[in-house]
Amino acid sequence: MTHAMRFHETGGPEVLVWEEVDVGQPGPGEARVRHTAIGLNYVDTYLRSGAYPASLPSGLGTEAAGVVEAVGPGVTDVKVGDRVAYSGGPQGAYSEERVMPADRLVVLPDGISDQQATAMMLKGMTAQYLIRQTYKVKEGDTILFHAAAGGVGLIACQWAKSLGATIIGTVGSDKKAELAKAHGCDHTIVYTREDFVERVREITDGSMVPVVYDSVGKDTFAASLDCLAPRGLMVLFGQSSGAVEPLNLGILAQKGSLYVTRPTLGTYAAKRADLLAMAQDLFDVVLSGTVKIEVNQTYPLREAAKAHQDLQARKTTGSTILTV
Prior knowledge:
NADP, 2 domains, quinone reductase (NADPH) activity, ER, NADPH:quinone reductase
């Protein structure tokens, strides 16, 4: 029998349980994938804790890499034996095997390992839409990226640097500041002891920035608006510190005709053609060496609860994967 990490009630990491599951055969438009590596992402903690709704009992995880073991009727996007990766689709990546919609699977090029793919699909595709679509970072831009030493941050900083941008990144410690700088961040702000609005003002000589990328949410959102230049764009793509309070839109006028967006990878990659184009853009910068994908922590799938504890305690940096 195949095993998976699941939860029957919401709560802390301790609600995750290792149990047998019946995978079954793929139906029309589906493929069965044997996992080799599974991505750990902060959004997984939102589902497990109940911050995001889930139908219980539930699997967990939406990112993994592996090998196609079987395909259902009508599947032409992948074939048996293909190395594939995915980010998105139904919950359940924390498993040894699973059945997936075949149109969510991306065939991996030879130069990218399963572990690399798992470490970069959600984070790298998120970085892609953030800096290549939501706000197209260009040469000469100065941008502010919160959690610059996180999984998305390390990829985004490298990529934005290659586009000619100057990156200001907030981090939680001196160790994380060093890590961010090693991945393209020009200026780091340790938010635990520095006022990041004042530091942004100093760094930009009062001009402020055209875009702020924020996955922290409640603790940083209001002050982030003060970092924006007139007509700047606030990109809120996560809420690791909690949900942002309801916003009086009049504040956007008062602070300089600002824009706010709450994008998701699910929307940007909803169409298969867009999914493949985004993945190819990501693969190109990784294969060229422009963006280096590093796995900083690895846990056995059975120890997913420990991985969640460390992630929420901010003991991890960059990408973390679960191995089967």
